[in-house]
Amino acid sequence: MTVRFDMRHLRAFAVTAEQLHFTRAATTLHMTQQSLSTQIRQLENELGVELFIRTTRKVELTAAGAKFYEYVRDIFARLDAAVEDTRRIASGERGRLRIGYTPTVGKGVLPEIMVEVHRRLPDLHVVTVEGWTRDVTSAVAEGRLDVGVARCAVLTPALEGITLMHEPLGAVVGVGSPLSNLDVIPVDELLGYLLITLPRDLSPGFYDRVIASFPMHAAEGRVHELQQLGHDTFFGDTFAHAEILAGNAFFVTFERHYPRMFEGFVWRPVSPPPLVGTDLVFSREGRSPSVDSFLEIATEVAKRRQRT
């Protein structure tokens, strides 16, 4: 059945059904009583039923009118919800956001960002996935993730990025090493030790930043890339674990990555401190409002964190 009435007829009917008084309903709708009566009559003719019982003393809904009113109320409730949802999605308050992050970021600024995201955008459905920098940036470029949070991200033509903050790298050394007796380790003091770091294949930007900070280690071939990778990084790599514990090597990382250091090891700051950026990576095209909202919150959190 094809109907020939529009939202004006439904609004006129709903207000009249609520108030059961044509004069007051017409006033609410900012129209004449005659125009209101005409719209109600058009609606009744189109439906083929009477919706109201009209007498000189009162107006009542018919049984059909009462049932139709239930449907019309539901229509307007759904329409209001649709309008609200649409506006909130457009503002980035609702929808879905897929975030990829690297292990050190997961123990760094990201948890603070996520607390603020959940507080300010409670209706935004957020999915977070951990991965190495290469995998995170590739997933963002291919549209499988909406935003990536990584150290020293290498951008492709399909990606844009902003640097949230910089954090200093330090060195993990064995407690038996002479380096552990220093409160701050000068870079020159590390020259006689093997540098252990993450593989370039998985984190190329981070690896290059480390090598730029310790050029003599690279020149002398005193660099070892981890081979057994996991959340424990150097601790899970048999060779790296043994060499650092024996006092022959050091592992470069962030202090926050090990809030509780493994027994037998200590973290020490390095001077001058190699600074490493934490980057937000996103697509150059089709950026959603939820990504914009995330970028705004992340930037605010990072600025607040660096002031403390």
UniProtKB/TrEMBL annotation:
PANTHER family in alphabetical order: HCA OPERON TRANSCRIPTIONAL ACTIVATOR HCAR, TRANSCRIPTIONAL DUAL REGULATOR HCAR-RELATED
InterPro entries recorded: LysR_HTH_N, LysR_subst-bd, WH-like_DNA-bd_sf, WH_DNA-bd_sf
Organism: Rhodococcus jostii
Keyword annotations from UniProtKB, A to Z: Activator, DNA-binding, Transcription, Transcription regulation
Name of the protein in its database record: DNA-binding transcriptional regulator, LysR family
Cross-referenced Gene3D superfamilies: Periplasmic binding protein-like II, Winged helix-like DNA-binding domain superfamily/Winged helix DNA-binding domain
Top-level lineage group: Bacteria
Start and end residues of each HTH lysR-type domain: 5-62
Molecular-function annotations in GO: DNA binding; DNA-binding transcription factor activity
GO cellular component, one term: protein-DNA complex
Family: Belongs to the LysR transcriptional regulatory family.
